[in-house]
Amino acid sequence: MSMIADVPVKDLVKTYGTPLVVYDAGALRSRLKEFTENFQSDRFETGILYASKAFSCKAVLKLANEYGLYVDAVSCGEIHTALAAGYDPAKIVFHGNNKTADDLQYALTKGIGTIVVDNLMEAQLLDQMIRGTDHTIHTLVRVNPGISAHTHHYIVTGHVDSKFGISLLNESELVDTIRILKDNPNISFDGFHSHIGSQIFEKQAFVEEIRKLFETAADFREKYGISCNTMDFGGGFAAVYTEEDHPIPIKEVCDTILSTCTEEEDRLHTGIQKVLIEPGRSIVAEAGYNLYTVGFLKKTPNRSYVFVDGGMSDNIRPALYQAKYDAYIDGKETEPVKETMTVAGKCCESGDILIEAIDLPEVKSGDILVMKTCGAYGYAMASHYNKLPLPAVVFAEDGNHRTVIRRETFEHMIALEED
What we know:
TIM Barrel, 20 strands
């Protein structure tokens, strides 16, 4: 019998049904504590942003707030959720490559602390909207340092052709963008933001990113008289999905970032005072589990399928960018492997495969399959494809459990539809 946070899996399934998303809330607390304790510096003010896009609900944001994290929000919906969770709007950082006028107006009206400006047109729009008003806003400008982390091309965000930010190769556009912000008395240009990808396993990628941004800050101060005080180096911190994954330990990656910042500031004297990171999935991914009930089994000439009662509607990552996962059958963890199987979902798509090949013991209909490291970009990217309702989300901790998001009903799914 397997347990999550000292709660038997069978009890969770009996109470809430499947498919079900379960978070080990104690593991979340441990990870938040580990980051906050290790990302400290005598040289710089430091800040950690919780990436809402990985998983956003009031319960998890209240935890992040409890540990002093900022919130990285990429939509008005994520801002609204953070505010509903009790966040000080000054601690919300608004990202996005295509913010509309309504998006920006919402952020300004709510008193959001910082906007990450993605491009020249956004700077022009923000300048027009805020000039002469009672609003003031801090800004960072997102840049592409031209560093391509070794990860799937769908989740590499720092290369020169990315849809995010302004390439450092396009210096004139970057200077124009910053000058628009600096010339507006209602806007404070604080510095640069960069994010070079996700699931980064090499420290050197962060080192190169930091060096590039500090050199840019020093160059812009000398050539254009543009100074900045803040650097946000994004995230990309990896999580363990399978035994092939070996993330950089949190203390090690935090020490690497802070020591490199110190070295670069000693070398270049840029005047940087504040350093931010966005750990993203590495906070929530490993704390989350997806629980499924096994339905039918099927053999084809080349495969043995185990079908489960969820799929790409609650975890699109395997179909979207071939993400790999590990799993086990509840209560059969020590049983010998019988065969290599393909775990497939119930959606009407041939690509609805959760795990391409996994060694499992004898599997029977009614068994519970526990899929690990499902805490990031699962529920957050869930859809109503095939009109499947969204699963419930549960927090488990110290033998107790509670609902943090109720299972969606059919009525809720069609509540906005008109006859």
